[in-house]
Amino acid sequence: MFSLPLHPPAEGIRITILSGPRRQQLQALQQLSAQVAALWLELRPGADAADDLARALAEPPAATPDCLIVFGADLLTRSERTTWLWQALRQRPALHILLVSSALSSCLPDDTLRPLTRLLPSDGPGPPLPLQPGRWLLEVTALGPGQVISEGQPVQDWRGSLTRRLFFFLLDKPIVSRRDLALAFWPGRDPRTLMSSFQVVRRKLEVVMGVDVVVYEREYYYLSPQMDVRYDVQQFYALLNLSRETADAAAKRQYLHQALALYRGDYLLNITGEWAARRRRECQQEYLAALLHLAQLWLAAAAPERALSLLTRLLHHEPRHSIATRLVMQIDLAHGRTVAACQALQRWRAAMPGVPLPPELAQVAALAGCDRNRDWPDL
Asked: Of 265, 9, 256, nearest to 122 (Cα)?
């Protein structure tokens, strides 16, 4: 995941592809502009993008900055982009090129340029590594409906729902055995029928991805190590771990903010199976815990309204959360919003009918006088 401050490129890296949400892109570009002299170039739809790029290279060498930031590079075909990038690298050996795009897939370089290219956001806190030639690049989002982009092309036809479920199952686990496959997809099948069914789906997956992605070794199956996989669930957990490891409050907030930005929805809502349901519950719990932790950090930083926004999101997902309800009530009371505080208590009671108030909620309710008048305005 993208980490701040922006890491300088490692030796040999000449191209950076910056993808992701616009807000994160702008944060990165602001930092970069403070570090190096940069020329910004925006390619326009309908214009001759190749000509615009050629004119940028034609500037006198003395006027050339350290970095050329290019917006709209996805307007070029991959062939046009590759030709221009090689031309730029040869003409200006000291120039670093930053391609800005909403999606990595639209600026993905060909194999010849991958050793010179890094991706941002990266999957960890350190400097991003260059892309490796000969390795298949997959972008996978599972926090939400689920999408796979294979070598820049969205996978749309999975040749059956089972093929898609098998891919995400293998992605979710380091290795799987035949027994794991049987329990998840073919319970009760005899071993011969099981393997026949699995091989059929495996061949479909190879057709869908354009490469054989499944490796069999020593009685276990796993996804091929010849793939570079950018997986939002893996990034989500990595950022949460980073937030736990650092003692710096500002860094904790940054890591948690980035992790929450990845959570676009519950894990693979359109995929059934106990393994998917279990992962879904785990991700939900981590998401709610991250919302609460970040809210508490903002409260400690004297930013109660930011904390209130996060707590509201948390209670939208889990209205029975007593700690979040208590914090919302305390924030409202501190700002003189007694009615809002008691309405928050009403929402908790509606979600937990017949359950006595926990001590922490009863204490705040007494301070607000919520039980003196139960006829609060409708929620």
From this structure: 9
Structure tokens at 144: 């939400």
| Per-residue CA distances from 206 to 133, 263, 375 (Å) | 20, 29, 63
Q: Which two tokens stand for residue 373?
A: 């008048």
Question: 118 and 75, same structural domain?
Answer: yes
Torsion of CA 251, 257, 260, 261, to 10 degrees: -130
Question: Total structural domains in the chain?
Answer: 3
pLDDT digits (tens, 9 = 90+) for 147-167: 998 877 889 999 999 999 999
Residue 28 placed within a domain: yes
Retrieve residue 379's tokens: 């929620």
Residue 379 has pLDDT above 50, yes or no: no
Question: Domain holding 222: CATH number?
Answer: 1.10.10
Range of the domain at 353: 319-379
pTM: 0.73
Residues 180 and 83 in one domain: no
Q: Please tell me whether residues 168 and 79 are part of one structural domain.
A: no
pLDDT in tens, 81-135: 888 888 888 878 778 888 887 666 667 777 778 778 877 765 444 445 455 666 6
Three-class secondary structure assignment of 165-232: HHHHHHHHCCCEEHHHHHHHHCCCCCHHHHHHHHHHHHHHHHHHHCCCCEEEECCEEEECCCEEEEEH
Which domain CATH number covers 121? 3.40.50.300
CA–CA separation, 118 vs 114, rounded Å? 8
The encoded tokens of residue 353 equal: 């009918």
The structure tokens listed for 65 are: 């900055």
Q: Tens digits of per-residue pLDDT, 175-205? A: 899 999 999 999 988 888 999 999 999 999 9
